[in-house]
Write a structure and sequence with these properties.
Blueprint lengths: L2 H23 L5 E15 L5 E11 L6 E13 L6 E11 L9 E16 L4 E14 L5 E13 L9 E13 L3 E3 L2 E2 L3 E15 L2 E11 L4 E12 L1
Parallel strand pairs: 1-13
Antiparallel strand pairs: 1-2, 2-3, 3-4, 4-5, 5-6, 6-7, 7-8, 8-11, 9-10, 11-12, 12-13
Length: about 240
């Protein structure tokens, strides 16, 4: 990889980490409730075909163990480009969202999405990078059609090996930026074009080629507040 490109990615990751730490130090300006997100991601290919399926199931709470926030089901058809790390995904997701506090009100959202995912590495494979661009078409109760655009960058650093592989502990950091496609969402409601930023940091363990787990802290930053999330994730390839 070109030296300038490596420098760009390294700078991006350092800035991401510094923002994560600074947002935590300013937590008194944010929401003090620590949320809990519990996630299972799966991926499989159709034999020797370039086609496959990717998806996830998530349960989110406003507090670590209670106050329902969201339940998510998502799955998409994927396609690997030959002789490339690029993968395209098109799929559907279902969201059932709760309301913070004592209210039991819930909101249903149906969503279509398209992903472009690719990987590369820095420093002779020492740092593994994953990129994802996601476009979403959102159909939310009592709102007009909405769209959103997201960019995600993830970096993993193995701690007990030179590269990612089975029986590897690793540290990781990531950032995802969300931008709304429309400001007016119906019924006199509006949103900003900037939606939110997620900043992650955590540790993980690669059990085998097909299974890994991650424990992380994420800081969600919106125009109105910041909020911390404790995240436990499992990733399964079969």
């Amino acid at each position: 990889m070109h030296r300038k490109t490596r420098s760009f990615y390294l700078t991006f990751l350092l800035v991401t980490t510094s923002f994560l730490l600074s947002s935590e130090s300013n937590a008194q300006r944010g929401n003090h409730e620590l949320g809990g997100w519990y996630m299972y991601f799966f991926e499989t290919d159709f034999g020797q075909s370039n086609f496959g399926i990717m998806g996830d199931v998530q349960h989110r709470s406003f507090n670590v163990a209670h106050d329902f926030q969201q339940f998510i089901l998502r799955a998409g058809l994927s396609y690997k480009f030959k002789n490339s790390s690029f993968r395209a995904v098109a799929g559907y997701s279902f969201f059932n969202s709760g309301t913070f506090g004592p209210s039991n009100a819930q909101l249903i959202e149906n969503r279509l999405y398209q992903d472009l995912i690719w990987t590369n590495a820095l420093f002779e494979g020492r740092i593994a990078l994953l990129h994802r661009i996601r476009i979403e078409e959102r159909f939310i109760e009592n709102q007009d059609f909405r769209s959103r655009y997201r960019y995600f960058l993830n970096a993993k650093l193995p701690l007990n090996a030179k590269a990612m592989g089975p029986k590897t502990f690793f540290a990781w950091t990531a950032a995802e930026i969300f931008v709304n496609g429309e400001k007016n969402i119906g019924n006199g409601q509006s949103v900003n074009l900037y939606d939110r930023t997620w900043l992650f940091g955590g540790l993980g363990y690669q059990f085998s080629k097909s299974l890994r787990s991650e424990l992380s802290y994420m800081r969600e930053i919106t125009e109105n507040q910041t909020k911390g999330q404790l995240i436990l994730s499992f990733f399964h390839t079969f």
